[in-house]
Amino acid sequence: xxADSFNIPRHWWGKIIGGVIGLFRGGLxxxxxxxxLGHFVDRFLAGIIGVGxxxxxxxxxxxxxxGHLAKADGRVTESEIRxxxxxxxQMKITGEHRQRAIRLFNQGKQAEFxxxxxxxxxxxxxxxxxxxxxxxxxxxxxxxxxxGQISTAxxxxxxxxAHALKIPAxxxxxxxxxxxxxxxxxxxxxxxxxxxxxxxYAQLGLTAKASDAEVKKAYRxxxxxxxxxxxxxxxxxxxxxxxxxxxxxxxxxAYDRIKQARGFK
Length: 265
Fold this sequence. Notes:
Elements: H1 12-22, H2 27-45, H3 53-70, H4 78-90, H5 95-109, H6 115-125, H7 130-145, H8 152-164, H9 169-178, H10 196-203, H11 212-225, H12 228-233, H13 241-262
């Protein structure tokens, strides 16, 4: 399909990505994860993804890599296939877009799938769009972690993608930690949930080694980045204001937890 004819309606992006995340985990938990991530994608990509080559590269690489992740630990089950069909219906994706998404996902499951070649067009199109690259890897990390634990095989794939996209090691580790995965191995220790203090640091993209000054700087940067009014000015729909406010509350809660532990104001 020519790039200039590939134009997914912008309001579909959250539904597409949030829905696909659900195929890695059924039930209420998966639905909530998909919905929240979908809102985040709608919010973040508004004004970033345009039509044409960049949009096509993002879409193609994402769906194919999600399929690759699904197959990382072995055979993709029939229930997962049925779930994909169900999710496509729920997302109201029809016609060639639906067929394309399914085809890409299935391509990613094949033994001969070439991850590097699949990522290349997106890497090329996103050279000056680091935020878009971070959004891409964040979606993959969330998908891998949605089963409760990032496996060794999934971790290897995620590390390859992060390397291809030149995601800084500290940023990538923070993403893993925020989802309950280890920075080194990509899985939580013995399947245990990340303790609240670690989670607080991860919410700010930090570790416990950060200085007080670094904590304050990260907090101010995130609050500014996710300020609802600023997001609206950058293209966030008014109806998504509550999502932005919730993110700011998460940041404030994490910061308050760290302040309390460290004893500074």
